[in-house]
Amino acid sequence: MNKPYFLTLLIVLLPLVTLFAEDGSQLWLRYQRVAPAVSQQRTIVTKSTDETAKLAVQELADYWVGQDVELKLDAQQKQLKDGFHIQGDSKRITVIAQQPIGLLYGAYRLLQWQQTGKNTADKIELTEIPSFDIRMLNHWDNLDRTVERGYAGHSLWLWDELPHQLSPRYEQYARANASVGINAVVLNNVNASPQILTPSYIHKVKALADLFRRYGIKVYLSANFSSPIVLGGLPDSDPLRPEVQGWWAAKVTEIYAQIPDFGGFLIKANSEGQPGPQDYGRSHAEGANMLADAVKPFGGMIMWRAFVYNPTSEDRAKQAYTEFEPLDGQFRDNVIVQIKNGAIDFQPREPFHPLFGAMKQSNQMVEFQITQEYLGFSNHLVYLAPLFKETLDADTYAHGPVSTVAKMTDGTFRPGFKTAIAGVANIGEDANWTGHHFAQANWYAYGRLAWNHQLSSEDIAEEWIRLSFTNEEAFVAPVKDLMLASRETAVNYMMPLGLHHIFAFDHHYGPEPWGDVAGGRPDWMPWYYHNADVNGVGFDRTASGSNAVAQYHEPVQQQYSDPKTCPETLLLWFHHLPWLHKTQNGNTLWDELCFRYDGGVQEAEAFENTWDQLEKYVDTERFAEVQAKLKIQAQDAVWWKDAVLLYFQTFSNLPIPSSVEKPVHQLEDLQKIKLDLKHHN
Ligand code: GCW
């Protein structure tokens, strides 16, 4: 090929390639613009002049190919909250909402139906009222644009350019959130820089808040408890000192003058080195209430995290409960105690946090981690809806049977109080937003469950696949199976049977059950959690051990206490058992561990085969990118299996069963692996 010809070809083809490049940036919003011929045949109308209502009309005018739609505001329909009612037949659909944002949510529901192949020409009648009032994303984004535990590139927020330049991605982000009902975002890391509260940053935050408002999204900030010292020059940040209270009141007034619908603050206090009220001998309630009083006149909220633990002799799993349970009933109405789903830290599997059953007189909310800090970063395909559901559906028995975590947080037992749920975002500036194309499903699933916690993992997966890829059954069915299996698969190749926190130190990618850092905190060391020795493995949290089981109501306490009734998935979370302990299927514990790890590896390898057979249904870019990541996942699964089994074998001194694939690595080689992955604090 001679050069000029080649160049011309390139010039002609490049725009086409860019146009059709399938980089995943469209997420689950792959609507086709309707042809003018279609749009002339139907009308999309609203009488409302509200910006959000107009946006709803615009979205439907651009993408809805069906019958006429009327979007109607009805202030009488208080029970709808920010939800909607849709009724219609083949000629006309009416979306009724009490608030303009309900109309936008209704519009996105119609578009979702259209995209997933639902027949909207039949008579339709349905009402959706969200499970939680505040459906929140927590960004752990630092002001230097690194993202703590983020695996999708740098932060979306271009602080240097704000407030003057607005990246087009801000609006795409807001639209994606609104399409699943997310209505609150915390922009910055809970390990918060005080700088976020300086006037110049407040202006930047205002620019984002102004942009998100049309999409029904309120902005919140993480605040550093020492801000009065750092920014205000006060000698301390004691929440009972009048000058400190005055400083916060003035700061809050300054924020609301710029952002009248500012949501409030998220606070990590006296946790992992962050400052807090205990620095002055005050309680978490005293700290939270001081801030709650400051935002109260403006309708603001305080999300106060319960993720607290210190290197003491008390089992880490017990510490948040020990700290917070005595404070139940002491928090102001506009404080919500934000509790991680499990008592330790976003492990592949944890029992539900016992605090959910203990804080009956306080507002409480679940914090999930959407970003995969402990689940293979954005390299592993792990669909998290089953993990989220496992917590939400867990029964605390706080008010007798069926006091699930969902009901303990959705207002069932505390009618009239604000309810909320949070997920730590997995979003960054990568073209596909989340690093792994399938990690988009976790953002989507979190939003859908925040909207309706009764949806099934299966239905959400199916929606997402249809929206993001295709309605072809031959693709939808196997991919759905793969997604639904993926969380259990990851548990099996990483930490089956209730094992936890045996990750590599600091960055948390890959296995390091032998990990020990001289002088390091014991509660950051794998041995603290697995307790492997010649006698057995596991953490005794029964009455003969740390007695963490006592933090659960009956009958859960009883059930967890006895290895015969303890769910096998949590066995080594609650029990230290001999290697030859008989598991439910009659295998010894050692053999069962070997089978689980091996099963996890085989499943991860099977994911590769499943995907390989689906090539013809997927665009080349996404096909190849997912294929490459599945390969890493399968290799990592082998790494996990070999590392943990070979290491534990040094204690069990038992053979790996012959039906299990032999380790391909040497323990000494695995112990030498040191990944250079930075953990940004
Ligand atoms: O999971 C741990 C993470 C920290 C994080 C902390 C928290 C933001 O390893 O990176 O800090 O939890 O939730 O506060």
Structural overview:
The chain has helices at residues 3-20, 36-39, 51-63, 100-115, 168-180, 199-213, 227-230, 242-258, 284-295, 316-324, 385-392, 405-409, 440-451, 457-468, 473-494, 526-530, 556-561, 571-574, 589-612, 620-652, 667-672; strands spanning 44-46, 68-73, 84-88, 92-97, 124-128, 134-138, 184-186, 218-222, 264-267, 301-305, 335-340, 364-369, 420-424, 536-537, 577-578. It is of the alpha/beta class and 681 residues long. The chain folds into three domains: 2-128, N-acetyl-beta-d-glucosaminidase (Double Stranded RNA Binding Domain, 2-Layer Sandwich), CATH 3.30.160; 134-455, TIM Barrel (Alpha-Beta Barrel); 491-539 and 576-680, Alpha-d-glucuronidase, C-terminal Domain, CATH 3.90.1330.10. The longest helix is centred in the C-terminal third of the chain and has 33 residues, at 620-652. Residues 140, 148-149, 190-191, 268, 272, 307, 345-346, 373 line the site of 4-O-methyl-beta-D-glucopyranuronic acid.
